[in-house]
């Protein structure tokens, strides 16, 4: 999905490509910092204490989510300054790209890098040793991981739109909603290997976030109906 979004909506505009790459970089830095904190915490703790290690894993996931959203806010601030600079340099006093378009492209950048890392981890697991499901566990690990990666890519895109809209209009409850949804989806991963318990709620949240982002972007039920019916 990230490749499709890039080809059809971003690839033809050099400015959008720059914003996409910068967004992916911001997500990567947030992952690096959260991984570093988690690594230090694990090394400083007792590796034989399973309860403690599980608690550190939960802490690492939640801390990573909060750090990602903090970097999303920093990226918004950076793009806001960039818009002011573009307006100052333009001849007509208008920015060549709107904040809504920046929010979408930045969200795709976050989702693209998140999906890439999920895919790399999945491919690393597929190299072995061992066979999925050999001890009676679910054999749907790779399939469900692929679906989870897809939903995270779309969610990051929608979260980018919602988050930037909240920052732009000082609606802090929208920002809080994004953080809560992100924490919820990440927390649902602890339901595995009960994959239904993580996939179904995540996709329901994705549909809700998509509808919300569509309405905030100026969409309407009439426009959606005309699109589905292929009417101009």
TrEMBL record:
Q: What is this protein called?
A: Gamma-secretase subunit APH-1
User: What cellular component terms from Gene Ontology apply here?
Assistant: gamma-secretase complex
Q: Where are the transmembrane segments?
A: 17-41, 56-75, 102-120, 140-163, 175-196, 202-221
Q: How does it sit in the membrane?
A: Multi-pass membrane protein
Is Cell wall biogenesis/degradation there in the keyword field?
no
InterPro entries associated with the record: Aph-1
Quaternary structure and partners = Component of the gamma-secretase complex.
Q: Where is the signal peptide?
A: none
Q: What is its main location?
A: membrane
Which species expresses this protein natively? Answer: Anthoscopus minutus
Q: What does this protein do?
A: Potential subunit of the gamma-secretase complex, an endoprotease complex that catalyzes the intramembrane cleavage of integral proteins such as Notch receptors.
Where in or outside the cell it occurs: the entry states:
Membrane
User: Which gene name does the record give?
Assistant: Aph1a
GO biological process, alphabetically ordered: Notch signaling pathway; protein processing
Highest taxon in the source lineage? Eukaryota
Q: Which family does it belong to?
A: Belongs to the APH-1 family.
Keywords, ordered alphabetically: Membrane, Notch signaling pathway, Transmembrane, Transmembrane helix
Q: Pfam families from the entry? A: Aph-1
């Amino acid at each position: 999905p990230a490749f499709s979004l890039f080809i059809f909506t971003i690839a033809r505009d050099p400015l959008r490509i720059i914003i996409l790459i910068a967004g992916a970089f911001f997500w990567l830095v947030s992952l690096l910092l959260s991984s570093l904190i988690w690594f230090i915490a694990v090394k400083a703790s007792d590796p034989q204490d399973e309860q403690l290690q599980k608690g550190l894993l939960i802490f690492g996931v939640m801390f990573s989510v909060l750090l990602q959203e903090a970097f999303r806010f920093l990226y918004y601030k950076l793009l806001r300054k960039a818009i002011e600079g573009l307006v100052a340099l333009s001849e007509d006093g208008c920015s060549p790209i709107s904040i809504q378009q920046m929010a979408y492209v930045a969200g795709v950048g976050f989702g693209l890098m998140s999906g890439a890392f999920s895919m790399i981890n999945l491919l690393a697991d597929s190299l072995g040793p061992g066979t999925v499901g050999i001890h009676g566990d679910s054999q749907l690990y790779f399939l469900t991981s692929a679906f989870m990666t897809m939903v995270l890519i779309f969610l990051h895109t929608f979260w980018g739109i919602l988050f930037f809209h909240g920052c732009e209009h000082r609606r802090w409850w929208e920002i809080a909603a994004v953080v809560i949804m992100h924490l919820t989806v990440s927390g649902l991963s602890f339901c595995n290997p009960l994959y239904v318990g993580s996939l179904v709620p995540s996709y329901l949240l994705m549909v809700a976030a998509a509808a919300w982002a569509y309405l905030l972007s100026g969409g309407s039920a009439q426009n959606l109906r005309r699109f589905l019916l292929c009417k101009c």
